[in-house]
Amino acid sequence: MDSATTTLVGREGEQARLAAFVEAAAGQALVVRGEAGVGKSTLLDYAVGLARQSGHLVIRATGVEAESELPYAGLHQLLHPLLSGAVRPDDGCRAVFDAAFAQHEGKPPSVMALGVAMLGLLSRVAAKQPLLLVLDDGQWLDDPSADVCGFVSRRIADSPVKLLVAVRADIASRFDTGALPERLVGALSDDDAARLLDRHHPALGKHARQMVLDQAQGNPLALLELPAHGAGHPGDELPPGASGRHDVPLPRRLQLLYGTRIAALSDTVRAELLMGALDGVGARPGDAGPGPRYRMRNVDEAVACGLLDTEPVTDDLTFRHPLVRSSVVQLATPNQRRAAHTALAQVHRDNLERRAVHLAAATLDPDEEVAEVLEAAAGSATRRGGAIAAVAWLTRAAELSENHADRSRRLGDAAFVAGHAALLGQARKLVLYGTAPDSAGSPASVLATAHLALYQDGDVRSTHRQVTAAIERLRSSAQPGEVLARLVILLLAISQYAADRALWQRAHELLDSLGDLVTEQPRVYSNTWSDVVRHGQGWSEPVERAAADLRGREPWEVTHLAVSAYHLDLLTQYRPYLQRAVAREVETGAVFSGMAMLNLTMLDQMAVGEWEAAERTGMRALALEMEHGHELFAHQTRGYLAQLAALRGQVGTARDLQAVVDAWARPRGIGFLTQLADAAGVTAALSAGDYETAYLYAIGITPPGTFAPYADQASRTLLDLVEAAMRTGRTDQARRHALAARDAGLPGLSPRLALITYGALAMTADGDEEAAEMYARAESHEAAARFPFELARIRLAHGNRLRRTQGRAAALRLLVLAAESFDRLGATGWAERARTELRGTGAAPRVSTLSLASLTWQERRIADLAAGGLTNKEIGKRMHLSPRTVSSHLYRVFPKLGITTRAALRDALSRMDEVTSPV
């Protein structure tokens, strides 16, 4: 069926579905799927006609294969009429669109940000007039645009906005997994096929008529085109070759028919058609991005033979069918295609990415000017989330480089981008491609090779040597550039995972030798990632200062700072950024940063007691890491999941995960992960009450009385080693370790280390006076509530001591506080231990801490109002207090009630009222 057909033949079911779709009051999306030529475009025309009759504003766009690698080209085509219309987006949404469409420099917006901005624009337009968006050939839409359209499609139910998409059934697209309603369009029935053929070719002879019906197999385009190909042969036979062979796919047979018409055109017209086909002409309306497509001229001959149509709204010439466009390209010789691409590159000289597409295809021999354009286009694509296009352009730029150094550098950059986009297979091929004798050992090649070897294979030894050597070579070069900065960060990451004293000392020496070539940031990482006990003093302030204003920093820079914040127990300050950015990083192709952000988010959720959320985050990270082959990250996440399972009393799961991590990491010498596995072993044993095993695991991380150099878990397991030593009668070792923490200055390094150092000193104190002082310091520490698990352990130990020294009544409040905290966290082993101690006091096992907490009348009143949902400002008005005063009261209330969030107030206060006094 062509677009001129006003009455559809057959398709009653499809017409009814489309009519219901257009007439529906609620917004919705529909995907029309079928083979080439089955009539999808005609059905879209039918829906458009209905929509316009019912007062809809209709916006049409068409995916074009030539633009499928241009990030957001399809989205721009779809939104361009709205962005330039009367109802325009607000400044915030405009900035998001401008960043995506390269109208200004800026961070790449996430699919969510673009989707929200698009929803806002569509809602503003639809408030004045119902809106129908129509997308034909959706299989050619670039991936970022398709993702945004999918996001929007699932959120338009409450607005008068509809999205209708047609896709080829034989070509994979993002819409295949979009979970959108579909309508499959199949071949016409035999009767409907005969009716359509007779309507358009009534003079066709009987034999030819049957041959067309047999060959077309109900495909409407074939029914119209096969007889047209035989024009001038009105008898019973089609011309030789027209019928084709049954074993040749129908779309291919149709291309052969179109090819016959194209071959009959003059050279000038074929050249114009080729320019239009290579530049994506055929989308409606004609603007697919900044700068117009090529406009074909003097092609009446092609219009007359049915190869081109005229778009009724814009008067633009369009190809009659995508098969015509592909036939034009296939029939052209390589020299003709290159000449057309060269001309198109000149047409788009002011559009960097479109020019790059054509120059890449037009150039055969090395050309540094073209390589520079492709490299610049790759940078633009990377910033806007087009990692796949960037890798392709950098690879092509390397091929066109005029010297070995530039070729190697560009291949290294391509591999680096591919690695950060989690395209590890492609990155590995690029590395192999770039390791010819002339490029082996170049800094860019080393960077890409070492990055892959570390994160895919867990190789810390040879990569450390390779990166060190590459930095030493660059140190004396005139222009070390960005590659040096990347190599330095990679060296620090390798050293962190190796957790080896000699490797870290070599890294520190090398950084010192670089002098002014290294900025402050790598020095922050060098000191905080290595050995926080020996090098961490004084770095909390710059890390906190950086967290206060992260604007203008690249995502990977924020991720590096967040790793420093983790080592200094300041990660909570970075978490809002990480949670906002992770979706953008994953969706725009920067999967490497996204996986790192998920792991960091999980660590903070574990620290603050959000353990169920931490497990979800960890499983999401692990799925991504396994999907993309990042073995190092995957085992790191398993280590964190093992620790989390151990905390929650899931000892079997913890030990299984621990064994997997240890078996992979220990032979490779990845000390960071083997320590993580041992730490999970400590926690699992403590949770199960197996204190001897816990002690053996703990001293495997660090001996008592010292903190092993460059061992991340040495300070983190301070309380574990002390508790295990005390429980197994090794009181001297426990005391020596607590004093070592004090003497090493751990309380000044981080809030968590201060809390557990005071707790360790209290647990090992000989006299009651020192114990009381240290317990008071721990429990009153300003950050104590931020680490509920550690605080509960210290309260449990304090309660145990008080029960022995001052009697049951003195211990009751602390033991109940500890028990309730363990219950809320889901730390089953510790919760049961606390309840056992409570039974020793004669208290009811579930007695509430809240009746024992020393809430003043004012604090109780504020807590009640906050639990009722009032804001600080509203509470202040009722009680004649300032909002800041209300906040201060709540800050004191939370630790007393053993909670960390406002949402927990209602349950806590309810339990307080139900308390039963101990017998």
Automatic annotation (TrEMBL):
**Is Oxidoreductase found in the keyword set?**
no
Gene3D superfamilies in alphabetical order: P-loop containing nucleotide triphosphate hydrolases (3.40.50.300), Winged helix-like DNA-binding domain superfamily/Winged helix DNA-binding domain (1.10.10.10)
Instruction: Name a single GO biological process.
Output: regulation of DNA-templated transcription
* A GO term, aspect molecular function: ATP binding
Domain HTH luxR-type positions: 848-913
Query: Which keywords appear in this protein's UniProt record, sorted alphabetically?
Result: ATP-binding, DNA-binding, Nucleotide-binding
Any one annotated GO CC term: cytoplasm
Pfam families in the record, alphabetically?
Answer: AAA_16, GerE
**Identification of the protein by name:** DNA-binding CsgD family transcriptional regulator/energy-coupling factor transporter ATP-binding protein EcfA2
Tell me what organism the protein belongs to. Nonomuraea rubra
